[in-house]
């Protein structure tokens, strides 16, 4: 089966680099499944899990926004933050989700609701990613 190179890069480091059979991401216009020889494209990403199929095994990453660049045989994800699903501390992610939900429920002027909403999206993405790895 043919492969393409996947790189997941954050401002701090290269999180992942490997040959994969397929990549599935959530762009702002919907879900994208990318196979080798896909047409070139660049699109922004949502805060959502990313799935890479490697030798018939699924590997999941929590990706916190950014962009994806697709070339013929290479996919580069430039993310604000990214982590392996297996590295996620589920209890910490649950606490972050609960904290963000409480902040959003308070609806006070001194609470930055857009920041709390992003925190909630990140926590939900981390939980979804970790649960898929189990």
TrEMBL record:
Any idea where the ATP synthase epsilon subunit C-terminal domain is? 87-131
InterPro entries membership: ATP_F1_dsu/esu_C_sf (IPR036794), ATP_synth_F1_dsu/esu (IPR001469), ATP_synth_F1_dsu/esu_N (IPR020546), ATP_synth_F1_esu_C (IPR020547), ATPsynth_dsu/esu_N (IPR036771)
Location within or outside the cell: Cell membrane
Task: Extract the coiled-coil ranges from the record.
Answer: 90-133
Q: How does it sit in the membrane?
A: Peripheral membrane protein
Main location class: membrane
- Which keywords accompany this UniProt record? ATP synthesis, Cell membrane, CF(1), Coiled coil, Hydrogen ion transport, Ion transport, Membrane, Transport
Any single Gene Ontology cellular-component annotation: plasma membrane
Q: Entry's NCBIfam families?
A: ATP_synt_epsi, PRK00571.1-3, PRK13446.1
Similarity comment: Belongs to the ATPase epsilon chain family.
Q: Its function?
A: Produces ATP from ADP in the presence of a proton gradient across the membrane.
Assembly information from the UniProt record? F-type ATPases have 2 components, CF(1) - the catalytic core - and CF(0) - the membrane proton channel. CF(1) has five subunits: alpha(3), beta(3), gamma(1), delta(1), epsilon(1). CF(0) has three main subunits: a, b and c.
Protein name per Swiss-Prot or TrEMBL:
ATP synthase epsilon chain
The gene designation is atpC
